[in-house]
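tokens incoming
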């Protein structure tokens, strides 16, 4: 098998154990399937990004010994996202949404997972907005608070190499979702789809907490012209003794802090694999040992 996989951390904080586990799964999958590894810095959220966090990603990966074949950073790819927006506009698949967070909470139902399912209140403004675009009126003056993607009302079937088959309708999961926010920043759902298509990503290995994004991303990929979806594997997360996912606060002690406190890469690798229930004790592991351990479980 050949292709490309990506590790795509967001520089909104320093990397923690959850990131390390995800990286191990990505490198293990690359080894098992003979894939090239692409490092993507997902700094689409410029309001929370900090240069120190970007530097920290490179430093932590180098400290553990992770090597990759190529890299990109989203903030340098803005023209590509503009082209993708234009492609969706030409198909009539986006519209402005002026709803505030308070309105969204009050006026829309929630899914079983507690996610707001947008009912399309602002969809009626779409025609007027496109007329103004066609007439080439000042784009900046008509920028909406959000741009939403019109999600097709259909069941999308996809397969996960670990979790099995899924049949989901994003219209019922979340409704039309934002692809650019009110500050003009690209959303995760949008930027990641554009990047995956442009960078030729064939395999996506990520935590199961993002599994619910898959069907909506497949729908967006189809609208952007992708021929077929990637191969997916959503891995289990680090959890507490009850099986509950650890919160960001509980994972907040960063790899950087561990390193500065004197921990070795082998100690952290062994501990993460133990917490992820990949070995029976926190026995220190080399990077190759940790990758091989996970490769045998994929």
């Amino acid at each position: 098998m050949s292709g490309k996989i990506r590790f795509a951390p967001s520089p909104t904080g320093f990397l923690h154990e959850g990131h390390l586990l995800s990286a191990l799964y990505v490198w293990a999958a690359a080894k098992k399937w003979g894939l090239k590894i692409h490092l993507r810095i997902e700094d689409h959220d410029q309001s929370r990004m900090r240069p120190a966090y970007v530097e920290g990603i490179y430093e932590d990966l180098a400290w553990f010994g992770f090597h990759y074949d190529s890299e990109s950073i989203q903030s340098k790819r803005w023209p590509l996202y503009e082209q993708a927006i234009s492609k969706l506009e030409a198909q009539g698949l986006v519209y402005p949404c002026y709803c505030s967070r308070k309105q969204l909470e009050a006026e829309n139902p929630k899914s079983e997972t507690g996610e707001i399912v947008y009912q399309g209140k602002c969809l009626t403004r779409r025609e007027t907005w496109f007329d103004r675009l066609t007439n080439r009126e000042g784009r900046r003056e008509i920028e909406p608070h959000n741009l939403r993607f019109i999600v097709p009302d259909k069941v999308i079937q996809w397969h996960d190499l670990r979790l099995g088959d899924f049949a989901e309708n994003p219209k019922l999961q979340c409704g039309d979702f934002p692809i650019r926010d009110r500050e003009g920043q690209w959303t995760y759902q949008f930027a990641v789809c554009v990047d995956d298509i442009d960078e030729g990503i064939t395999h996506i290995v990520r935590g199961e907490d993002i599994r619910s994004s898959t069907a909506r991303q497949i729908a967006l990929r189809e609208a952007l012209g992708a021929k077929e979806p990637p191969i997916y594997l959503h891995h289990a997360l680090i959890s507490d003794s009850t099986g509950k996912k650890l919160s960001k606060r509980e994972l907040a002690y960063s790899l950087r802090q561990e390193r500065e406190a004197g921990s070795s890469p082998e100690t952290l690798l062994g501990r993460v694999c133990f917490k992820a229930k990949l070995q029976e004790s926190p026995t220190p592991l080399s990077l190759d040992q940790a990758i091989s351990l996970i490769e045998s479980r994929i």
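note: The first strand starts at residue 4 and ends at 7.
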